[in-house]
TrEMBL record:
Residues 1-176 form the Calcineurin-like phosphoesterase domain. It comes from the Bacteria. PANTHER family: COMPONENT OF ATP-DEPENDENT DSDNA EXONUCLEASE, NUCLEASE SBCCD SUBUNIT D. Keywords: Exonuclease, Hydrolase, Nuclease. This is Nuclease SbcCD subunit D.
């Protein structure tokens, strides 16, 4: 038996740092990742798809987002089982109980809207732990595992949330207890645990039966989310009493959120940064978070600003990584001797240079003024 495990679609997600038309393209890419499950299911002969929580970004989506999301699910040619998670819980405002969702839900979409066993077919069950609020006061997974029999039925647990062994804060009541998962697997009551919440693919424990699939399209930078954009193809051998499991990851995401750190202390460093950014493929689907450190002359800082301005127009977003950025700007001796000016202008430039070499707010203003002057002198855009 083979199925697809995915999670954290978060359809309707927005990212405030995306440039202009990049946000609609990113939203379309998230829906396209859902639609891509159909061809993948056909290719691997998957019986169904399980979505382990956070199908939608939240419960207050615009009607257009709901309709487009359901249309993407319609394109998947096998049953799709949706688990409500912390972003889209089954509360009073749930998208799953809205009139629009009920009217437009495709026949192949099934909401796992009650805790416990859901029959897929004889001998195969899903065990669901849906969220009913954003802040559960108990371990929802442990509750559905309690007293679950090991009776030869193949079972897949579908849960959402953080496993306690993966987080430092052990006091959250909603944490999934790993001991309960291991016990259920060890006694044969559950044969695979499909989890959502982490947006990066991750195997939990040593059994190879407990997995986070991650989000099928990237949601965060690669230093935070190292392995996104994946869907898991899960095989369970129902002919073997031990129900051995094999998991294969397939990449379907197309976007990248990249964190870069670079030293910039001279014009050669800036040229190297320019080359590295230029060589990056798929700029329209790439977000760069850039951390720069170093000391530059005013002329080199103006060159750097011009470089970053260009790539900010080419990438989906190029944003400063504030915590990793520390650039000092200091005018070099003779740096403004070639401006071809005289009289009072020379004296004004000398005053700006002196102020720029000091500290405080006036120094920052002076450096900015000198950078603008350099760019204008070189024919650059203001």
């Amino acid at each position: 038996m083979r199925f697809l495990h995915t999670a954290d679609w978060q359809l309707g997600m927005t990212r405030h740092f995306l440039n202009g038309e990049a946000q609609p393209r990113y939203s379309a890419a998230r829906r396209a990742a859902v639609a891509a499950l159909g061809p993948l299911a056909t290719e691997v002969d998957a019986e169904f798809v399980v979505v382990a929580g956070d199908v939608f970004e939240h419960n207050q989506l615009a009607p257009r987002d709901v309709s487009q999301s359901l249309e993407a699910m319609r394109a998947v040619n096998v049953p799709v089982y949706l688990l409500p998670g912390n972003h889209d819980p089954l509360d009073a405002s749930s998208v799953y109980t809205s009139a629009l969702f009920a009217a437009e839900r495709p026949d192949n979409v099934v909401v796992l809207d009650r805790p416990g066993i859901h029959e897929v077919r004889p001998g195969l069950q899903l065990v669901a732990a849906p969220w009913y609020s954003k802040a559960p006061t108990t371990d929802l997974v442990a509750e559905v595992l309690e007293a679950l029999p090991a009776d030869g039925t193949t079972r897949i647990l579908v849960g959402h949330g953080a496993v306690d062994i993966l987080v430092p804060d052990k006091d959250r009541p909603s944490l999934i207890g790993f001991a309960a998962l291991e016990s259920a697997v060890a006694r044969g009551a559950v044969h695979y645990v499909a989890l959502g919440d982490k947006h990066s693919r991750l195997s939990v424990g040593a059994t190879g039966r407990v997995w986070y699939s991650g989000s099928p399209e990237v949601t965060n930078y690669d230093d935070i989310e190292p392995d996104p954009g994946q869907v898991l193809v899960v095989d369970i051998d129902e002919s073997d009493p031990q129900r051995p499991v094999a998991v294969d990851a397939r990449r379907i995401g197309n976007w990248r959120f990249v964190s870069l750190r670079r030293p910039v202390d001279n014009s050669r460093d800036i040229a190297d940064l320019d080359i590295n950014l230029d060589l990056m493929p798929d700029k329209e689907r790439t977000v760069i978070r850039l951390g720069l450190t170093g000391t530059l002359t005013v002329t080199d800082k103006a060159t750097l600003d011009g470089c970053l301005d260009r790539y900010a127009r080419l990438f989906a977003a190029l944003v400063p990584w504030d915590r990793q950025t520390d650039i000092a700007v200091m005018p070099a001796d003779g740096e403004f001797d070639d401006l071809g000016i005289g009289g009072f202008a020379v004296a004004a430039v000398d005053e700006l240079v002196a102020a720029a070499r000091s500290t405080g707010e006036e120094a920052e203003d002076a450096r900015g003024a000198l950078a603008l002057l350099r760019r204008l002198a070189e024919g650059g855009a203001a």
